[in-house]
TrEMBL record:
Protein name, per record: Pentatricopeptide repeat-containing protein at4g26680 mitochondrial
Keyword Transmembrane attributed: no
PPR-type repeats, residues: 317-351, 352-386, 387-421, 422-456, 457-491, 492-526, 527-561, 562-596
Species annotation: Phtheirospermum japonicum
Repeat found in the keyword field: yes
Biased segments, Polar residues type: 20-42, 63-75
UniProt lineage: Eukaryota, Viridiplantae, Streptophyta, Embryophyta, Tracheophyta
Length: 642
């Protein structure tokens, strides 16, 4: 029998909506073929709950329970009427469209609010999940994570469930693991696959110790089974349990194996993103990746990782940022370091004292002392207290600009502010005054250092001994050396070299030889500077032959001279009019790819010409030209060709 269509169903069909019997569920067609997306669910309103007039097809229809009195239709109240509906009563058919329209208006009016509430709820859930890492700003960009990484999470947050033999294998291995039955596990090693390993790690992730032991065991038995997906899971487990050293060690090993692949860092990051929610992880796993890149001096990879993290709403900790900044400082890339610091501030990563100290040092190295002072003054506004490193860095900046009085003012200011000067403070100032030749001020600071109960170090004594030796005061250098030994400060090879150089400059070669023998007592080995000092002493006594013997001993000891040593030897031979010896040293110099300067060549060629050794001149000229070591602007050869 033909069933008459319900007017309510007809209205909903035209709108692309439909009702269930017990609940009112709005379904809207989507772009996908035949797919329907559920928007909202609420209790189905009864017709008698509407106490208002409605319009159907433009005609106002008054509720039968409301008195008209010729007045205008009233929409004063949309709340359900509290009166009990009449049981068994039925509405007239002419009123059915009115009821449907009222229901339609009621639902559509709340449609926008429902969508907004759903989006806000999703954003809040994502934000709370990201707060697991303990950083509030990690969730700033997590409202749905609208980047492409958010899509990756939703597509890869689960893995296929284990069934059949895989499930049995996983349960058996898990049982052996929790009972530490490693002998039985060894028999199952051939059956390990990446799929099974991932399930086992997920099953044991609540006990990170067992998970890590199992991962290491698999790495020994069948390292190829530890794929990137497997490694990402163990990294999530370790970082969530704050085992950062272990996770960074794994990351370093993984990144070193894939260093030849330019896309490998991105693949590692994506693997961590895909397994992020599945492992209930925290943002510290990405922080560990960034820190590992920085500690390996992979600055491009670290910068890329920082950018990828920010796209996901994650940011590294200030400690990891400090690792990156410190690595840049070590390579004297202060310019890049300052750019990264500004990016840190833009991303609201709060710096600590260590961060700001490095920034001050960077500005000082770039010669921007005024900017460094401004940053120093801003520390209090950041809620940071200047420490001794802050003051020492600024003092070093003043000294590098040769503003020694400014450095002393900073030292006095730090003492007034309750920051006690240390050995680095005094060593920086003493070294600056020594370079300027103001040994009196250096001695004054040295005495002040001892009176302030700041123990002088090896660096302190080496600075003073070297300054006295350079100024030709070997007596004070020896006195400082003796005081150093009495105080129990250990002398190093730099200490002995400074004393030997001071003695040799004054021609005191016997005392210098005695100091060389003393090296054995301190279990120290002579280096190039030691031999250069001895050669200097022999040259000062015009003993070129002895100087060349020391040079040969130097080469036998695998210590190689620099250009200064070669020029000193050549000058000694020329002064003794031993041009054959000078040529021999010159050839040694060229053999080591060191270009002689114009003065050296002029003195040798002039001497050879006076001795009428034209053949030697021609041979030497040809050898210099063939090695392309001819000094720029040297015209001697042109004269000889005529």
């Amino acid at each position: 029998m033909y069933k008459q269509a319900n007017p309510a169903d007809e209205v909903l069909r035209r709108k692309g909506l439909r009702f269930n019997n017990e609940q009112t569920t709005i379904f809207s067609p989507t772009t996908a073929a035949g797919s329907m997306s559920r928007v909202s669910t609420q209790r189905r309103p009864r017709p008698e709950e509407f106490d208002c007039d409605v319009e159907v097809d433009g005609d106002p229809v008054r509720d039968s329970t409301q008195q008209t009195n010729g007045g205008t239709p009233s929409f004063a109240s949309r709340r359900p009427r509290e009166s009990t509906p009449r049981s068994g009563s039925r509405r007239r058919k002419s009123q059915e469209p009115s009821v449907v329209s009222a229901m339609q208006s009621y639902i559509c009016a709340n449609d926008t609010i429902t969508h907004a509430m759903a989006e806000c709820t999703t954003s809040l859930v994502d934000a709370l999940e990201l707060l697991d890492g303990g950083r509030v700003h990690d969730c700033l960009c997590s409202a749905g994570c609208k980047s492409k990484v958010s899509d990756a999470r939703s597509n890869h947050e689960t893995i296929l469930p284990a069934r059949g033999q895989d499930l049995d294998f996983i349960n058996i291995v898990h049982s052996h693991l929790i009972h530490s039955e490693w002998d039985k596990l060894s028999k199952l090693a051939p059956g390990l696959t990446p799929f099974r390993i991932k399930h086992i790690l997920l099953k044991t992730r609540k006990d990170h110790v067992i998970s890590f032991e199992f991962f290491n065991w698999v790495d020994l038995k069948n390292s190829k089974s530890n794929t990137l997906d497997v490694i990402s899971i163990i990294l999530h487990i370790l970082t969530k349990n704050r085992h950062f050293k272990s996770s960074e060690s794994i990351l370093r090993r993984v990144l070193e194996t894939g260093s030849s692949d330019l896309d490998f860092p991105r693949r590692v990051f994506d693997a961590l993103v895909y397994s992020y929610r599945m492992c209930e992880s925290s943002s510290r796993v990405f922080d560990a990746l960034f820190k590992t890149h920085a500690s390996m001096n992979k600055f491009r990879n670290a910068s890329d990782c920082f950018r990828w993290m920010s796209e996901c709403g994650f940011y590294p900790t200030v400690e990891s940022c400090n690792t990156y900044l410190s690595a840049l400082c070590g390579l004297n890339r202060s310019d890049i370091m300052l750019v990264f610091y500004k990016e840190m501030r833009r991303c609201r990563i709060s710096p600590n004292v260590y961060t700001v100290n490095m920034v001050i040092d960077a500005y000082c190295k770039l010669g921007k002392l005024e900017t460094a002072i401004e940053v120093f003054k801003e520390m209090e506004g950041m809620g940071l207290a200047c420490n001794v490193v802050s003051y020492n860095t600024l003092i070093a900046g003043y000294c590098s600009k040769r503003l020694l009085s400014g450095g002393l003012k900073i030292k006095n200011a730090m003492e007034k502010n309750g920051v006690r000067a240390n050995d680095v403070t005094y060593n920086t100032l003493i070294n600056a005054f020594c370079k300027e030749g103001e040994l009196h001020e250096s001695n004054k600071l040295f005495r002040e250092m001892k009176s302030a109960d700041v123990a002088p170090t090896t660096v302190t004594y080496n600075t003073l001994i070297n300054a006295y030796s350079e100024n030709g005061n070997s007596r004070m250098a020896i006195q400082m050396f003796d005081e150093m030994c009495v105080r129990g400060v250990k002398a190093d090879i730099l200490t002995y070299n400074a004393v030997i150089m001071g003695l040799c400059k004054e021609g005191k070669t016997k005392k210098a030889a005695y100091m060389v023998r003393e090296l054995d007592k301190g279990k120290l080995v002579p280096n190039s500077s030691t031999f250069a000092a001895l050669i200097t002493g022999q040259c000062a006594r015009n003993n070129a032959g002895r100087a060349f013997q020391i040079y040969e001993s130097m080469v036998r000891s695998c210590c190689y001279p620099n250009e200064t040593t070669f020029k000193m030897l050549i000058s000694a031979f020329v002064m003794n009019e031993d041009y054959d010896g000078a040529v021999r040293v010159l050839k040694e110099m060229m053999r080591r790819a060191m270009a002689p300067d114009s003065n050296v060549l002029s003195s040798i060629f002039d001497g050879l010409s006076r001795d009428e050794k034209e053949d030697m001149v021609m041979d030497l000229r040809n050898e210099i030209e063939s090695r392309r070591l001819l000094p720029e602007g040297f015209e001697k050869f042109a004269i000889m060709r005529k």
